Amino acid sequence: xxxxxxxxxxxxxxxxxxxxxxxxxxxxxxxxxxxxxxxxxxxxxxxxxxxxxxxxxxxxxxxxxxxxxxxxxxxxxxxxxxxxxxxxxxxxxxxxxxxxxxxxxxxxxxxxxxxxxxxxxxxxxxxxxxxxxxxxxxxxxxxxxxxxxxxxxxxxxxxxxxxxxxxxxxxxxxxxxxxxxxxxxxxxxxxxxxxxxxxxxxxxxxxxxxxxxxxxxxxxxxxxxxxxxxxxxxxxxxxxxxxxxxxxxxxxxxxxxxxxxxxxxxxxxxxxxxxxxxxxxxxxxxxxxxxxxxxxxxxxxxxxxxxxxxxxxxxxxxxxxxxxxxxxxxxxxxxxxxxxxxxxxxxxxxxxxxxxxxxxxxxxxxxxxxxxxxxxxxxxxxxxxxxxxxxxxxxxxxxxxxxxxxxxxxxxxxxxxxxxxxxxxxxxxxxxxxxxxxxxxxxx
Length: 444
Prior knowledge:
Elements: H1 9-12, H2 17-28, E1 32-33, E2 52-58, H3 71-84, E3 88-90, E4 93-95, E5 97-103, H4 108-120, E6 124-129, H5 133-145, E7 148-151, E8 164-166, H6 173-185, E9 191-197, H7 200-215, E10 219-226, H8 234-241, E11 247-249, H9 255-267, E12 273-275, H10 281-284, E13 297-298, H11 313-325, H12 340-358, H13 363-372, E14 384-386, H14 388-391, E15 396-398, E16 401-407, E17 410-417, H15 419-424, H16 427-436
Parallel strand pairs: 2-5, 2-6, 6-7, 7-8, 9-10, 9-11, 11-12
Antiparallel strand pairs: 1-5, 3-4, 13-16, 14-15, 16-17
């Protein structure tokens, strides 16, 4: 289980040496180096250049930790793969990677403290992050320092955030495509209800989802952002269900909130379909029967899904993850692998590709090189740098978007959609709704 609402910080941080290091650093308000299993073992090719320090700035505790803490595992696997080859190829040199992490607790002030420490003390050249309020707080400093910040959430992109990139995580594009997918599979359904927390990412992502639901013909019967301080979701769900929805979407609700909301939907007798940006089935199924989640939709696939085939990057990744972090493994994290374990890797790998193509870690050269590519390889398929129509700048990595359904308690890919093709026919109607809600980049 990623996070239980009864867990305190100390209990949450007891799963592995990564977690223990995170707990100690969080208590001290400092960054920590993420442990590697490569250690001093000889690489296939010896490094010829200086190390490149990478930052991880995200919630490692609190309700947002389900989007942060697991990301350390996937990023470290990628780093160790690169280092096993002698490091990242930068021009004629092989430069090893090293990761430093800081727990920002999903708060702006902590994030700014962490950003300054990672840049000024650890000299990081790239920051892997969750985004949201922390992105708002850190972007002036990181823009001045010209450090690329990779948010999970494309809603963080704005024209003045020259070095903020996002999009490997398919938020909010999956939230825009879920109404389309549900309508395609169940054309007789009409009533769409959506909720998420009232922070930056919840408000903006929900606006894009509502616009998309309307564009695809849904009657949006409930569109409310609950207070992020909410601890009792019974009245929230009661009000939602009073509108008699066919589909309840949890949009970008934090993993902890999703568990509590789904439990209330079950207890209050909702019989329709559940849809969300991210479903941590392991946690949810501790609260509801397996059959209750049948047909629920999200977009964070499992890498043991037969969809990917073997051999594949995904198959190799989950095999490596299990051998390192699975039951009885050296760094056993005492939980199942989730979509977040690989999610942060997407944009991290894109940045590494840009560094190699540009032959430098200079952020302007890296971004210019990435935008010039007709196709950028990602772990979800070929991508391009786009986004100007939505965010005012082409800083969004846009790979194909997988859509999952829960089958027998296990998420399985049902379709993969190219977002740009879908968006082109609907963008004017969607943007009008987002603008009415005051959530376009030039309104925030």
